[in-house]
Amino acid sequence: MDNSNQRRRFIKSSAFGLIGITAFGNSSAQVMINKIETGNYTEPLFYRYPGINDSMASGIVGASHGNFDKVKELVNSRPELAGASWDWGFGDWETALGAASHVGRRDIAEFLIAHGARPDIFTYTMMGMLKSVQEIIETVPEIQLHNGPHGITLLQHAKNRLENKDISASDASNVNKVISYLESLGNADIKPKSLDISEEEKKKYLGEYRFGTGEGEIFVVDLHRLGFMQIGRKGSSPRALRKIDENTFSPAGAPSVKIIFKITNDKAGSLSVHEPEPLITAVRI
Got the DSSP string for 98-141? Predict the structure, then answer.
C-alpha cells in the first residue's frame, strides 16, 4: 500500500473517531474528510462542540417570541432546536416553547411541540387546556405559585394569549375558563417584589459601568422604551430591573440576584452584583 492510501485511511479513521459519522451524516462527514485531505478545512468548530452553537440556541428562543418564519427556518433545518433553551442573563432561563407560551403564540407553540418540544403547565395555560392545568395543580399542589421566564406569572400567560388578534372565539372561551379557574385559586398571579421608583430617581443609576479591561466588559444601565430600568452587558440583551430596596435591584427572572448601586453625591459611582454573595463590582465610566 502506498503512502497516499495510508494517509487517506488514517485521516478517515481519525475524522470518524473524533467527530463521529452519526453526528454529521455520511455526506457531511465525507465533505469534511475531503476538506481535510485537500487542506481546505479552515472553519473553526464551536468551542463547546458537539454542543450546539450559542447563536443557534439564542436565535431560536428569540425568534419564538413572534417570528414564526424564522422559527420554521431554524427548526426545519435542525429539529433539535425545538427543545432549545437559553439563559438571557443571571439565570433567567427560557425555552423556545416557553417564549411562545408567554407571548401567547399558540401557532408557534404547536409547531415546536410537533417537532419535539416538551409542553408544561405554562403552555397548557396559554392554550386554554383547563383539564390539563387542573390535573397538574391537583397533582403538584402550589405549582401555580411558580413563575415562568422573566418572572411572568402563570395567570399572565393566559391573559397574554387573549391579546393576540388571531385568537378564535372558541380558543378565547377556553382561555377565559382557565383564567377564571386560576383567579379562583387566588395565588396564580403573584408578581416579584417591585417598589415604586420615580423618573427623577432613575436618572442617578443610568450609565455605563466597567468591570474589566475587555471591550465588552461593560454593564449598560438604561431605560426600556416602556420606561422601566434595565441592565445588560454591552452588546447583549438587557434584563428588566425591579427595585427591591434602597439602591438595590433584582433582574427579571433571577430573584436571588441583587444589583446594589453605591451612591455618591446623589449619583451612582459603581454597582456590585450579588449572586447571592458579592461576585463583581463595576465602576461607572
Answer: HHHHHTT-HHHHHHHHHTT----HHHHHHTT-HHHHHHHHHHST
Taking the model in full, what pTM does it have?
0.82
Q: Are 102 and 152 in contact (CB under 8 A)?
A: yes
DSSP 52-76: PPHHHHHHHHHHTTT-HHHHHHHHH
Tell me the pLDDT tens digit for each residue of 6-41.
444 433 333 333 333 333 344 445 555 455 455 555
Instruction: Give the Cα separation of 153 and 146 in Å (integer).
Output: 7
Of 120, 208, 124, residue with least CA distance to 161: 124
Q: What is the spatial distance between Cα 225 and Cα 107, in angstroms, rounded to a whole number?
A: 27
User: Is residue 83 within 8 Å of 76, Cβ to Cβ?
Assistant: no
CB 209 within 8 A of CB 283: yes
Distances (CA, A) of 183 to 155, 169, 176, 280: 8, 21, 10, 41
d(CA 52, CA 46): 8
Query: What is the spatial distance between Cα 186 and Cα 176, in angstroms, rounded to a whole number?
Result: 16
